[in-house]
Predict the 3D structure of the following.
Amino acid sequence: MATCFTESQLGDQLVIVGGMSVWSLCEHHMLPMNLHVTAGYVPDGGAVVGLSKFGRIAQHYAGRLQVQERFTRQVAEHLVDVIGRKDVAVAVRGLHLCMSMRGVRLEAARTTTLHTGGQFAIDPVLNQQFVTLAGAQWNAA
Ligand SMILES: [Zn+2]
């Protein structure tokens, strides 16, 4: 399991935690899926999530049969609990071996899921900042 963290901050508005890769198992096909996870949150007045804590949360939910959409939501909801604020966004880009190995063999296919809450859901500028930074991390990987 490769785990790598990067972090960048835009003033005190937005913290991005990402560059992390976890493996899980697709519950439909029992085949591995590789999930690249990026989280964003607004720490203003709330707790700051340590990088290792974030990694444990992602690995916790990856350590069971999953579908990518549920994994994304579970990580986001856990972060909301930890931070004590709803201003959390989680983006996941998944490589599913069930898509790469079986059937249509879409070897380059990636599935992206996005969960936004609080300010991320209502502030289009903040939302766009997060999506841009998450995408930049994936393109650099
Ligand atoms: Zn599958």
Observations:
- The chain has five helices and six strands.
- The first helix runs from residue 51 to 62.
- Residues 4-140 form a domain with the GTP Cyclohydrolase I, domain 2 fold (CATH 3.30.1130.10).
- The helical segments are 51-62, 68-83, 97-101, 119-122, 124-140.
